[in-house]
Design a protein that fits this description.
alpha/beta; Rossmann fold; 2 domains; 12 helices; globular
Amino acid sequence: MANSLLKYYFFTCPSKYKSMSAQIISGKAIAEDMLNGIKSRISQRLSAGKRAPSLAVILVGGDPASSIYVRNKRLACEKVGINSIAYDLASDIKESELFALIQKLNEDDTIDGILVQSPLPPQIDEKLIIEHISASKDVDGFHPYNIGRLAVRQPTLRSCTPFGVIKMLNSANINIKGLDAVVVGVSNHVGRPMALELLLAGCTVTCCHRHTKDLQGNIARADLVVAAAGKAGLIKGDWIKPGAIVVDIGINRLDNGTICGDVDFETAKERAGWITPVPGGVGPMTVATLMENTLLAMELRGV
């Protein structure tokens, strides 16, 4: 009820409420609750004499950002009780060798999920690698089969970041059904599956990208903005419709070493009704959803 009243006031009386600060959506807190729930479910499996899920995490090369992401995922596995099996490979590995490893993991019944951290070195075709992972072990939710199931409204393993956004909004009791949503960025990993998730949730969805003629105009009309372009400060705060929901997926490292999103947060938070911070917003939800996908992959295989 409170959520509906806030939406009414923000969307019908913008001049009166445009100076109000947005409610901050803490993905970190919601993700923590998710991880605790996953840990409990795994504990119940163990008490029933079943094994814990296992996740194979493949890191190719020593890219610093990738190493940090992989470390966070492995720490989350340890926290909830998922067996994390590390494959740290040289940057000059041949594509055929990586294919062989993935095939071995596909056939290993003790492995429930396979994750290959991107980006990959130039000699490896990331699209082929994704397709080579068994769809039933694709816990990133990137395989064309899993994206296709989402497109026809029969999802199984769903892309972690977009599904994490939906889980975050649901946990914050924000009803998005019927809203006009704009997704900025159309990557296969985030923007496109995000648009499909929003369609599934009942939104009317517009996708914006480098060829969009009027980005500002599209954002100004949106009840919900999801920024996923990977460009710092792309979306100006004064473009935001008063009372809108702003979800910032962008993660950008500035020259001074600080992290920021795609949205001008300080200005946007004075106009938005709800907004996610960077860091501490969507990022933790991605990791938590990966953990849930790993457990789900195991359950769907009937192990």
